[in-house]
Amino acid sequence: MAKKLTKLEQYNTQKQQTDQQVHHLNAVIGKADEEYQTLKAQYEAKVRENVLQGVDDMSEADRLADAVEAAEKVCRRRREEFASMQHVREVMTVTPEDVIEEYHAEIAPKFKASKVTPALERIRAAKIAYAEAILAYNCVKREFVDFESEYKESFGESYKYRFGRVLPEKRAEFDHYFLRSGDLDRLERDIVPDLLKSEVQY
Predict the structure, then answer these.
(1) Are 89 and 154 contained in the same domain?
(2) How high is the pLDDT of residue 161?
């Protein structure tokens, strides 16, 4: 079963066909005008020649005059055909209003449901998961600070530094796990932050 054409596809096909016809008629009109102007120039030249030479035989001039008249009629007829074609374009089967109506009623809602909404839901799920992960980390961090304090307070100041670091403190460590506002700005501009390029699939 053939795929149903959208109104836009129908409109574009219809427009292409009429545009081709208009282009053809323009070429035909141009050719008819050129032939008319050529015959008219020949007729006027022949009349001047006969007058200057005093020629009584006007048969050639008459023949050219008849040809000029016929060519002029052809020009008028071609322009009438062109006007009819322009009218056909105005009453095309599929109109811009039809295309817009289908876009709002079918095309945009379908695209939103199949593409936009799922993409947004993924973002929202990731947003919730990220918020929950940070809150969970904050809880672990508080727990560790209390846990670490027990050890450090059991010894003097000279021993505290020997316990080392467990939580991320340096910028590179922090950036490895957390998104900064600048990262979000880059992502919105379709730029993957450097630290994520090797891991993000897109």
Answers:
(1) no
(2) 66
